[in-house]
Amino acid sequence: MSGAVGIDIGNANTIVAVARNRGIDVIVNEVSNRATPSLVAFGVKNRFIGESAKTQEITNLKNTIGSLKRIIGRQLMDPEVEYEKKFIAGELVDAGGEVGVKVRYLGESTVFTATQLVAMYLSKIKIITQNEIKTPVTDVVLSVPGWYTDAQRRAFIDAGHIASLNPVRLINETTAAALSYGVFRTFPEGQTKNVVFVDIGHSSYNVTVAAFAQGEMKILSSAYDIHFGGREIDFALTEYFSKEFLEKYKIDVRENPKAYSRVLAQTERLKKILSANSSAPLNIESVMNDIDVSSSLKRDELEAIVQPMLNRLLGPLEKAVLESKLTSDQIDSVELIGGSTRIPVVKETISKFLDKPLSFTLNQDEAIARGCAFVCATHSPTLRVRPYKFEDINPYSVSFRWAPVDGEDASELEVFPHGNLIPSTKIITLFRSEDFDIEALYTKPSELPGAVSPWIGKWTIKGATPMENGEHPAVKIRLRTDHSGLITVDSAYTAEEVTVEEPIEGEKEKEKEGDSDAPVKTKTVKKWVKKNTLSIVHGTTALDSSVKMTLIEKENQMVEDDKHVADTEDRKNALEAYIYELRSKVEDQYSAFASEEEKEKLRSLLEETEDWLYGDGEDASKSEYMAKYTEIDALGGAMKARYLKSESDKAAAIAAAQQAAKDAAAKEAAEKAEPTESTEPDDSDMKDVD
Question: Are 490 and 480 in contact (CB under 8 A)?
Answer without folding.
Answer: yes
